[in-house]
Amino acid sequence: MKVDGEGQPLLQQQQQEVAPLQDSYMQSRAEALQNVESTIHELSNIFNQLATLVSQQGEVAIRFLYFSLMHCIDAYLLSFVALFKMIYDYITITSLLICPLLSIMIK
């Protein structure tokens, strides 16, 4: 067994010198893991907030589409009513003109 100048085995002396380095390394690894954990937690919060925003914006988009669709339906119905009134007026005027002619033709 090799012994240094103070009578300690060389292996024991090397282990004593390496121990503080290992402790320092382990501490820095623990801090790094805590930083990773913290970053993952922050990312989780960000994605949760993003999901909430997307959900809210989705609701706004659905409302916008709904009101746009309702506006189009209203415009269509107004056009349909106007067309129906024009057809009704045409039939009324035509019948007013044709009925006297028919009565003259029948006599």
Automatic annotation (TrEMBL):
Ranges for domain T-SNARE coiled-coil homology:
23-60
Superkingdom: Eukaryota
**SUPFAM superfamilies on file:** t-snare proteins (SSF47661)
Which keywords does this chain's UniProt record carry?
Membrane, Protein transport, Transmembrane, Transmembrane helix, Transport
Transmembrane spans: 64-84, 90-106
Q: Name one GO biological process term.
A: protein transport
Q: What is the protein name stated in its UniProt record?
A: t-SNARE coiled-coil homology domain-containing protein
Indicate the segments annotated as coiled coil, or none if absent.
none
Please give an example of a GO cellular component term from this record.
membrane
Q: What PROSITE patterns does UniProt report for this protein, alphabetically?
A: T_SNARE
Q: Which organism is it from?
A: Vigna mungo
